[in-house]
Amino acid sequence: MTNNDILPLDISAIHQRGAASPIHAGDAGQFLSRGIGRHPSRILSHFDLIYVQSGVLRIQEDSAAFEVKGGESLLLWPGRRHWGTEDYPPDLAFYWLHFAIRTDESDPQISPAISVPQHAVVARPRQLTELFRRYLDDQESPDRDQLSADLMVSLILCEISRAIRSGTEPVVERSPLANLAKQFIQANSHLPITTSSIAKSIDVNPNYLSRIFRRDFGITVTDAIHQSRMAQARFYLMENDYNVETIARLCGYDSAIYFRRVFHRLHAMSPLEYRRLYLKVHVIGY
């Protein structure tokens, strides 16, 4: 085994009527360090997925040593001993999730649909955080069923697998102007920017910018501005206790009413409903 093994998974059976999910979801939680103790030494009978939010987790699995930083994931394998090599730093916070894989010995040559790296930099940290929060929220619900939990774990593993896919997909050639406009949006979406003001900043005709931006990214400049602002809004809703009016202003909206309307259109729920769904902190014994 290498120090970054790949977990191949075929999740296509989930879509077949009556087929069991290849994933069996288990317990999950969020670990918040108090600056004392270290990861226990143990051998588990199931996979242990860790997603570090902040700090650094230093851990050993058999002969492989890992240093897992904020925004990185680690998949500890069943049947292997793992243990912490240093005490938990006070700023360490991570999600953890236990799951097992149901093997199908009748078809050992089946082609995996996704490949999950053992240690990876997560391509979309905010999206993965949202999935973990949703899983933990559902875990507390008396109405949760096993299939729903299995499917949610599948989504989490698919999200982590992007760390591989994002590095293997062909590079799409985009206009330098379109890329420049996107960078400008990401850096300035908290300001009252428009297609015209962006075009003026990068010295290009607004109509031409609109055309090449939609051609290269598949969305309008205005939609890209909203998406960037919504990503920041989700962060504020999950990580702070700001009210909606404050979040709207911080994200570049003059009107909280308009902000609520855009948020609901893109998320099918209000900002406060989103906060109630995802903001809960679940600190479960690990």
Write the layout of secondary structure elements.
Blueprint lengths: L5 E4 L13 E10 L9 E2 L3 E8 L1 E6 L2 E6 L2 E5 L4 E4 L8 E9 L12 E4 L1 E3 L3 H15 L6 H23 L7 H13 L6 H7 L4 H12 L3 H19 L4 H7 L5 H12 L3 H8 L8
Main β-sheet description = 5 strands, antiparallel
The proportion of residues forming helix, as a percent range, comes to 40-55%
Strand order of the largest sheet: 2-9-4-7-11
Helix-strand makeup class: alpha+beta
Return Rg in Å.
Answer: 21 Å
Indicate the proportion of strand residues: 15-25%
Mean pLDDT: 84
Going by CATH, the homologous superfamily of the largest domain would be Regulatory protein AraC
Q: How far do the termini sit from each other?
A: 26 Å
How many beta-strand runs? 11
Assigned CATH class of the largest domain: Mainly Beta
CATH architecture of the largest domain: Sandwich
Low-confidence stretches: 105-112
| Number of individual domains | 2
In the CATH hierarchy, the third-tier topology of the largest domain is known as: Jelly Rolls
What does this 3D model show about the protein?
There is one protein chain. This protein has two domains: about 160 residues, Regulatory protein AraC (Jelly Rolls); about 100 residues, Arc Repressor Mutant, subunit A (Orthogonal Bundle), CATH 1.10.10. About 40% of the residues lie in helices and about 20% in strands. It has nine helices and eleven strands. A hairpin with a 2-residue loop joins strand 5 and strand 6. It is elongated.
Summary keywords:
Jelly Rolls, Arc Repressor Mutant, subunit A, 2 domains, elongated, sequence-specific DNA binding, Transcriptional regulator, HTH_AraC, transcription regulation
